[in-house]
Amino acid sequence: MAILIVAEHDNKVLQTATLSVLSAATELAQHTDDRELHLLIIGYECQSVVEIAQGIAGVSQILVSDHQIYQSPLAENIASLIVSAAQEQSSADYSHILTSASTSGKDYQPRVAALLDVAQISDIISIESADTFKRPIYAGKAIATVQSIDRIKVITVRSSVFMPVLLITGNKVPITVLNPQADSGKSTFINAALTQSSRPELTTAKVIVAGGRGMKNAENFKLLDTLADQLNGAVGASRAAVDAGFVANDLQIGQTGKIVAPDLYIAVGISGAIQHIAGISGSKVIVAINNDPDAPIFDIADYGLVADLFEVLPELTTVLKVKG
Ligand SMILES: Cc1cc2nc3c(=O)[nH]c(=O)nc-3n(C[C@H](O)[C@H](O)[C@H](O)COP(=O)(O)OP(=O)(O)OC[C@H]3O[C@@H](n4cnc5c(N)ncnc54)[C@H](O)[C@@H]3O)c2cc1C
């Protein structure tokens, strides 16, 4: 029996989220005897990803399909390859197919489940046994324990909850090349408009400075940029700030945004609505700056400052500048 992990990458670098999914898979393997971990890499000209992946501790097989058809990550094509890998590598007899609960994972994994005629188990945060998992529901207000009796468990993992596994040098995991599947013809890639940023990615950042409607406008977000740069952190936002057009929507944190788990989360001018909290509850330390002492964010903050953000932020950045 084996567990199949679908890698996330940009054809050059393996995403840290995959190392966290591998950590979840390692834990899963401990619940049953004799489980191998196989990593599936689907991409185009993705040799450097394969080389990185060969250094992953605990992986016994890497399956690669490197073809132009996978240059754009179309969920229909990816799902059909995952299903064929699960069926054709019959000697492996996959018990679980795991990937991260990222935008892409949420896109193709339900299709994989449908093609295999099994349920999909979404966004797991803990592994109770080989068939039982915990996952947040109602925007994280409650945790459901779900059990699946399906022959293959198709799962997305909340990667921020699991510590990434280590990469080791000198490791050479064997590679199996998989033939590409025919283009489904159901969707066509038109273009991707990607935000370029030198700051860390929100889902893996150790420090996040996030702003809400209290920032008042896009121009004021520069105050947060300065603070984030001083702390080597990422900038995030509430949905209200995104909806008001202060920042791009890929900065949104929360139930319908990104789930983050930094060491330090600084919420500035954010009220702390339940849908926002749903995305930040994995943060180790939460600091809130808000001029309303009754703002709900103070109920969950480790440190709270009742003050006008337009006075506090310049003071804070000046102090940090002095301290270097
Ligand atoms: C289905 C659904 C999904 C949603 N998903 C998300 C989501 O993913 N993420 C998300 O964030 N929201 C989400 N929301 C919206 C959510 O309910 C809130 O409306 C939103 O989080 C509020 O954003 P905010 O805290 O920035 O704004 P507000 O609630 O308007 O709060 C602004 C805060 O700024 C403070 N403030 C104002 N001026 C200053 C100042 N000068 N100094 C200091 N503080 C100041 C105010 O006291 C206030 O607390 C969702 C809602 C729904 C219905």
- Using only C-alpha atoms, the radius of gyration works out to 21 Å
Number of contiguous helices:
9
Structural class, please?
alpha/beta
Q: What characteristic shape results from the CA principal axes? A: elongated
Low-pLDDT sequence parts: none
Q: Tell me the strand order in the biggest sheet.
A: 5-9-4-1-2-3-10
Main beta sheet strand tally, sense and closure: 7 strands, parallel
Bound molecules: flavin-adenine dinucleotide
The rounded distance between the terminal residues' Cα atoms is 54 Å
Estimated share of beta-strand residues: 25-35%
Number of strands: 15
* Proportion of helical residues: 25-40%
Average pLDDT metric: 94
Walk me through this protein's architecture.
By secondary structure, this protein is an alpha/beta fold. The protein has helices spanning 16-29, 47-53, 75-88, 103-116, 221-230, 239-243, 274-280, 297-300, 309-323, and strands at 2-6, 36-43, 59-66, 94-100, 120-124, 126-129, 132-137, 142-147, 153-157, 175-177, 207-211, 234-237, 264-268, 285-290, 303-306. Helix 3 (75-88) crosses helix 4 (103-116) and helix 5 runs parallel beside helix 9 (309-323). The protein is elongated and about 65 Å long. It binds flavin-adenine dinucleotide.
List keywords for this structure.
7-stranded parallel beta sheet, 5-stranded parallel beta sheet, single chain, binds flavin-adenine dinucleotide, 9 helices, alpha/beta
